[in-house]
Amino acid sequence: RGNMAFTGKYEFESDENYDDFVKKIGLPSDKIELGRNCKIITEVVQNGNDFTWTQHFPGGRTTTNTFTIDKEADMETMGGRKFKATVKMEGGKVVADFPNYHHTAEIAGGKLVEISTSSGVVYKRTSKKIA
């Protein structure tokens, strides 16, 4: 495990509760369609407490969040909204509070498992390691 547990390239494999979740956080319907079963590639570079977390969407759009554990950082949501957050590390999970959801990410069984929770709706996305 160690220092670089998250480093790698991960391809979307499956998700649960996508529709309920994105409606709950107010994503517009065109964005909802784009994101459904979307083969997002998530690329993570971890260097100790420093992370660069990039999501590559089909069609060439990318979102990159760069942050250091326990320091406030400028971040961007799935929908492209900018905000400030302090990302924490709790029991091997990366934990962040986005404006309208709570997000955790962990490596479990070699896969990247991300869980976002908003008003009781739990969205789970699993990605398999490809590099």
Protein model, in words:
The chain is mainly beta and 131 residues long. The protein has one domain: Calycin beta-barrel core domain (Lipocalin, Beta Barrel). Helices cover 11% and strands 56% of the residues. The chain has helices at 18-24, 29-35; strands at residues 8-16, 41-47, 50-56, 62-68, 72-76, 82-86, 88-90, 93-98, 101-108, 111-118, 121-129. The strands form 2 sheets. A 9-stranded antiparallel sheet has the order 4-3-2-1-11-10-9-8-7. A two-stranded antiparallel ribbon has the order 5-6. The longest helix has 7 residues, at 18-24. It is globular. The two termini are 16 Å apart. The model has no long low-confidence stretch (mean pLDDT 91). It holds the Pfam family Lipocalin_7. GO terms for molecular function: lipid binding. Residues 8-25 form the Cytosolic fatty-acid binding proteins domain. It comes from Penelope pileata. InterPro entries: Calycin (IPR012674), Fatty_acid-bd (IPR000463), ILBP (IPR031259).
